[in-house]
Amino acid sequence: MGSVITIGIAGGTGSGKTTITRRIREAFGGDVSVLYHDNYYKRHDDLTYEERTKLNYDHPNAFDTPLLVEHLAALRAGHAVECPVYDYTVHNRSDRTLTVRPAKVIVVEGILIFAEPELCRQMDIKIFVDTDADVRILRRIVRDTRDRGRDLESIVTQYLTTVKPMHEMFVEPSKRNADIIIPEGGHNQVAVDFVVERIRAHVEGRI
Questions:
Q1: Which residues of the chain have pLDDT under 70?
Q2: Would you report the helix, strand and coil content of the chain in percent, each value rounded to 5?
Q3: Which residue ranges make up each domain of the chain?
Q4: Over the chain, what is the mean pLDDT?
Q5: How is domain 5-203 classified at the CATH fold level?
Q6: DSSP character for 61?
Q7: What is the pLDDT of residue 1?
Q8: Beta pairing partners, 108
């Protein structure tokens, strides 16, 4: 398969990470595999649904990051992995898994991936998507009501009590670990084109 390049894409909630990940997938098709940090939320079968709704999902401890590190290392070594699948509607890991196969380009996406030194060490290019907070919260409201069965009040409450403070405590400081900072996310055509061409050079063996 040749050498593997690992791209980390971080940034606050609603910053445009997924848009950039999608652009990379569109550009390289089967040469790309993606691991989403969100799928690695810890399982909480021991808690009721009500108790799970009150957990802080924006703190590094909410994630089973060692499992993600293990899976990333396996992919980089050429082995397929069974990635967990998180179900936002029940605030818990589902019983399904998703087979992720090794590829020339591995993308790791998540709000807190650059806050984890062990993950950072496995990444060749670290991209931080930097978008204004008001834009991010509006995107989160649209996404969570449309895709995750949430009501407006619960989204706003969660944003003010955990998302915003955790962003300021963990996500924003992790920006200093990035190699590239992209303002305005997927709408920054110049920056996205630059990233795609850098990956293309690797895939085609030019660097």
A1: 1-2, 207
A2: 50, 20, 25
A3: 5-203
A4: 91
A5: Rossmann fold (3.40.50)
A6: G
A7: 42
A8: 8, 35
